[in-house]
Amino acid sequence: MSNLQITFLGTSGGVPTPKRGMPSIAIKWNGEIYLFDCGEGTQRAMMQSKVGYGSINSIFISHLHLDHFLGVFGLIETLHLLQPSPKPISIYAPEYFELINKYKFITLDKIKPRGGLLLQGNDFSISAFTVKHTKNSYGFIFKENDRRKFDEEKAHALGLQGRMFSEIQKKGSLVINGKKILLDDVSWIKPGRKIVYSGDCAPSENLIKVAKDADLLIHESTFANDKEDEAKERMHTTSKQAAMIAKQSNVKKLVLTHISPRYSEEESIKNLLGDAKSVFNNTIVANDGLIVEV
User: Fold this and answer.
1) Would you say residue 169 has pLDDT above 90?
2) Three-state SS across 56-108?
3) 74 and 159 fall within a common domain
4) Rounded to an integer, what distance in angstroms lies between the CA atom of residue 47 and that of residue 42?
5) Integer Cα distance of 279 and 175 in angstroms
6) Residue pLDDT, tens place only, 142-152
7) Which candidate, 186, 257, 177, places its Cα nearest to that of 221?
8) Distance between CA atoms of residues 51 and 284, nearest Å
9) N or C: which end of the chain has fewer CB within 10 A?
10) Alpha-carbon distances of 272 from 75, 226, 263, 266, 283, rounded to whole Å
11) Three-class secondary structure of residue 277 per DSSP
12) Phi, psi of 215, rounded to the nearest 5 degrees
C-alpha cells in the first residue's frame, strides 16, 4: 500500500498569527506533492516542514480569497529561479484566477462551475465539489482507486493457482474441476482511501454527502460554538458544526483547520476541540507542521 501523508503547512484563517500561517495543505502520494490552497508564506512553511519544492505535481485553489492563494506567485517565482528547467505543474483554480504567461512550466486549468473530476492518475483521482461560501468556492476529494483483494486461502482451496488469478479477473469466472468459480467467490473490493478537504464553507447537505465514509475529513473551523451566528453570517463553520458533519458523514477522523486568529491562546484552542469532541470524539485541531498519515 502506498504511503499517504498529509502535512498542514498553514492552519490560520484570514490573517496569520505567530504560530499559524495562511492556509495550505500538502498531500504526499507516491513521492509527488499535491498542494491544496497556497496562502502567503507557503513556500517558507514547506521549507520548515521539509516538503520539497521539486516534488510539487499540482496546486488546487479552493476560492479566490487572498489568504488562500497569495502564496502561489512567490512559490512559482522561486521554482523559476532555482530550477533551470522546472518540472511541469498544473494549477486548478476557480474562474477569474489568472497568471502571467512567463511561466512556461505552469498549466492553468479552470475548475468548472459545478466542480467535477480534475485529475485522474493511475491509481487515484482528485475532484472538486461546490461548497456554501462565496461564488465559485470549492472543496476537494482525494480518492485512491478501489482495489480487488483475493482470499488466497479460499482461492487455493478451490483450485486457483498461478495465472488463474489474472484470468479470473479478466473473465469474471472460471471452471475448475467441473465447478464454476465466480470472481466474487474468492475476492472482494477493498475501498480506496478517501480524503476530503472542505475549503472555506458553511455547513451543507452536499458536503455531508461528499464526505460519506471518508478516511479523513479536513474541515474549516473558523469559530467556536458560541459564535454560530457570526459563522452563519460570514458563511463559515464552527468546530461543533464540523463535528456534526463528520458524524453524519461517518468519517473515520476529523482534523479542524482555518482557525480564527482570535483563538490564539492554548485554552481557547482546547475549547474549540472540546466543542467538537463532544459530538465526534476522533477529532484533532491542526497546527502548522502537523503530519497525518492515512
Assistant:
1) no
2) EEEEECCCCCHHHHCHHHHHHHHHHHHCCCCCCEEEEECCCCCCCCCCCCEEE
3) no
4) 9
5) 52
6) 999 999 888 88
7) 257
8) 22
9) N
10) 32, 10, 9, 10, 10
11) helix
12) -70, -35
* 279 and 242 share one domain: yes
* Whole-number Å distance between alpha carbons of 38 and 69: 5
Cα distances from 43 to residues 73, 78, 248, in angstroms, run 10, 9, 35
**CB-based contacts of 76, cutoff 8 Å, min separation 6:** 89, 99, 103, 106
165 and 38 in a common domain: no
Place of cell 497546527: 287
Same domain for 174 and 217: no
Radius of gyration of the chain (CA): 22
The residue among 188, 206, 239 that closes a domain is 188
pLDDT of 268 reads: 82
CATH number at residue 270: 3.60.15.10
The helix (H) or strand (E) run that includes residue 285 is strand 283-285
Note the pLDDT of residue 1. 62
Write the CB contacts of 101 (distance below 8 Å, at least 6 apart in sequence).
Answer: none
Query: Which amino acid, 222?
Result: T
67 tagged catalytic: yes
155 and 51, same structural domain?
Answer: no
Examine the pLDDT at 103 and tell me if it is beyond 90: no
Cα distance between residue 7 and residue 29, in whole Å: 12
Task: For residue 99, give the C-alpha cell.
Answer: 497568471
Is there a single domain that holds both residue 135 and residue 281? Answer: yes
Question: How many domains are contained in the chain?
Answer: 2
131: its cell numbers: 461548497
**Residue 134 belongs to what domain range?**
4-146+191-293
Whether 161 and 135 share a structural domain: no
256 vs 1, higher pLDDT: 256
> What pLDDT score was predicted for residue 101?
67
Whether residue 249 is found in the same domain as residue 271: yes
